[in-house]
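Students often ask why inverse folding is considered easier than folding. One informal answer: many sequences map to the same fold, so there is more than one right answer. In these notes we will look at a single instance of the problem. The structure comes first.
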């Protein structure tokens, strides 16, 4: 159960937790966020998430709402009061409350911080047995997808369109037809040569914390890694495809736009990476 939220200095039951109508996050999507997995009551890859939070804040010219030390304390308290074992924390920082005006408010307006918790069920064995489907569509987002902005309307529309087509995720295509990433996940393939391919970091994609962990695990396991962009046609000729995110770990993709990837079954490389990731989580990532 997730019943309490941290909102600007207070721990409140969700039923009464709220933010001001003139919070710039609400009015302008002027804010950034993080999603951190909680595994067996512990935060997973906390430092990497806080480093990305720091970067997102800097990129939009926003100060930390509280010190890093205080934020770590708040997150642990939110986990404790929600009795959270397995799930995620959602952290959101916005440019605070001020009368609606596009330019930044005066320097004395404090950034607003909200932390909520959610229990998540483990991925079902059925999903792992069958893999998931993705559908491709144009990437309609802005040119700074490396910032974890709360402005997610294009991502939401893409995810909804995927869902309506019976798919788990949307793969977004840039103007040249290359896959940028999923609406809330990073995109990968495993080629016939056994190379694990994912798009290099840059402004068109979010630097996924799970992407980073998977790359490190693959490197340790001496697997072949190539950071380059790929198109859906190449993915359909690949042996395997998969996606990564904090909440999905590494998940096999077995269908792209209704067509099977490889033999249409989750592949050994994806399953191995998922297992390595699960082991890392168990040890304390
Ligand atoms: N989504 N790309 C996008 C656009 C994302 O929103 C996410 C994360 C990722 C994967 O990043 P990570 O491995 O750090 O979770 C890639 C989160 C989980 C969300 O919005 O819920």
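Output (designed amino acids):
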């Amino acid at each position: 159960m997730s019943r309490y939220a941290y909102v600007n200095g207070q721990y409140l039951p969700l039923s009464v937790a709220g933010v001001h109508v003139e919070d710039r996050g609400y009015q302008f999507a002027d804010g950034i966020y993080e999603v951190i997995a909680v595994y067996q009551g512990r935060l997973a890859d906390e430092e990497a998430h806080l480093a990305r939070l720091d970067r997102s804040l800097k990129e939009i010219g926003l100060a930390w709402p509280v010190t890093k030390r205080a934020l770590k304390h708040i997150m642990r308290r939110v986990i404790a009061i929600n009795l959270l074992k397995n799930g995620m924390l959602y952290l959101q920082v916005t440019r605070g409350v001020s009368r609606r005006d596009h330019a930044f408010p005066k320097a004395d307006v404090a950034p607003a911080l909200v932390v909520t918790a959610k229990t998540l069920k483990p991925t079902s064995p059925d999903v792992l047995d069958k893999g998931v489907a993705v559908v491709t569509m144009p990437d309609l987002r802005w040119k700074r997808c490396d910032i974890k902005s709360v402005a997610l309307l294009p991502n939401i529309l893409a995810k909804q369109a995927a869902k309506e087509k019976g798919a788990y995720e949307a793969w977004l295509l840039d103007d040249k037809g290359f896959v940028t990433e999923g609406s809330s996940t990073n995109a990968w393939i495993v080629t016939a040569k056994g190379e694990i391919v994912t798009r290099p970091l840059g402004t068109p994609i979010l630097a996924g914390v799970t992407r980073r962990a998977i790359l490190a695990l693959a490197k340790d396991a001496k697997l072949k890694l190539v950071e380059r962009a790929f198109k859906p046609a190449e993915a359909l000729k690949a042996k395997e495809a998969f996606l990564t995110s904090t909440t999905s770990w590494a998940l096999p993709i077995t269908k792209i736009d209704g067509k099977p990837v490889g033999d249409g079954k989750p592949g050994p490389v994806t399953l191995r990476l998922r297992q390595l990731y699960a082991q890392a989580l168990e040890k304390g990532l």
